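The freezer alarm interrupted the setup, so I double-checked each line after restarting. Inputs confirmed:
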Amino acid sequence: MLWPPRGSPTQPDMERGTGHMTAEAKESDPATPALTERQEARRRRILHASAQLASRGGFDAVQMREVAESSQVALGTLYRYFPSKVHLLVATMQDQLQHMHGTIRKRPPAGDTAADRVAETLMRAFRAMQREPHLADAMVRALTFADRSVSPEVDTVSRLTTAIILDAMGLDDPTPQQLSAVRVIEHTWHSALITWLSGRASIAQVKIDIETVCKLIDLTMDEEPAGPVKAGKARRGL
Amino acid sequence: MLWPPRGSPTQPDMERGTGHMTAEAKESDPATPALTERQEARRRRILHASAQLASRGGFDAVQMREVAESSQVALGTLYRYFPSKVHLLVATMQDQLQHMHGTIRKRPPAGDTAADRVAETLMRAFRAMQREPHLADAMVRALTFADRSVSPEVDTVSRLTTAIILDAMGLDDPTPQQLSAVRVIEHTWHSALITWLSGRASIAQVKIDIETVCKLIDLTMDEEPAGPVKAGKARRGL
DNA sequence: CGCTAACCTAGAACAAGTTTCAGACTTGAT
DNA sequence: ATCAAGTCTGAAACTTGTTCTAGGTTAGCG
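Predicted 3D structure, all chains:
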């Protein structure tokens, strides 16, 4: 079986919280049933086709029949791999984010303060989005449109984003306040991206807002000196 | 004719910015062609049906055929009043927001600092959402899913939200930094709401994040004393 | 009153996401 | 090699947002 039950009724209102985990999470996942080589190849073809179509016309251009055709897979198979268009696009975003995380790791941001580095990282990501606005549109719209049935996948994206931001901050043991600040930054990032993509905010405005929200980091870096180390500007390096 | 051209190609990338305007904007709009009484009644019936259906199953439960039937209007007419499901739901949100703005005005938040008052206001709004989570889901999902063709309407919602927040801050002549902070708060508000609605964050987490982002207000209230008055409160740890 | 333009209605038609099904193909274990 | 279970395929069907059409209704105006 490729997919577990699928569609668990997470009705009884939640009490969860994006688990932390700066590290990787690759194939060891017990929920991922280990694909054969051909299956892995199919999956890749599908994701590739999805990104390709999204890069042209955005969300609307990603039509399931076309994705199936492009990736040489029957429609039913496509749906076996990704139970809905939103699942597919969120997975596409996972894919792209992973790629971006790698890229950023290779050349980390160089600002003096944590806030600077986070803002720089986000703006770098933002420039990547500018290069493929349609793709960005498709992915982000899917992400925010996702309902409960996609929660696990969205959560994975969220964890990836958190990891990227924490990397930029140079923290691996954040306080609750810092986690909250990071979540707020993520919120701002997604929402600002959307307002830009739908033409309601300029790039300059997005930049300003990102810088604004990053000030929250400085706030949380001051409180709780947390020991003899790290009093001043907040650690650089990584 | 009820609707102007509809579907203006706002292609050439933007340079706009949510105009300010704390005041109201009612019927004088030259773009709104003044409905007859029966038309106004139809419009109300539609919005009512929309909210009603949304209150049960959320976004998916708002089916255009059902809305049409519920409001005793032909499908084609429904589409004449609201050119898409997203338009309809965004208009529904406008409606609800207007209502909420009135409610809040009647009993304004009582906190000492601007940040307190904004956080209180948002939490009050949040509790309203909790009372009708499905409705909230439908409206917010529509709002973030909206593409360029809905920009004007989404912008109206954004202005309303901004007005509510500025009211809570007790400002009517905000600085650019303050406007940026308000935008960041709006971003956080929408996005946090979504994570709660899709079961990925607890109410407690949303509360914390709102309080976190509201600290930005204190920051911007410090800079630019803006006159002899109001230097006091603002900053304090948490 | 009677005309005309704009509006409304019922219903068919179309588009794209999703589901379903019968039959062919793979895979893993015996 | 063979069998059973699980996958994949191609095609049709179903659902819901959206558009289109033909004819009846309304509102303002001469």
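Quick read of the result. Residues 85-106 of chain A form the longest helix (22 residues).
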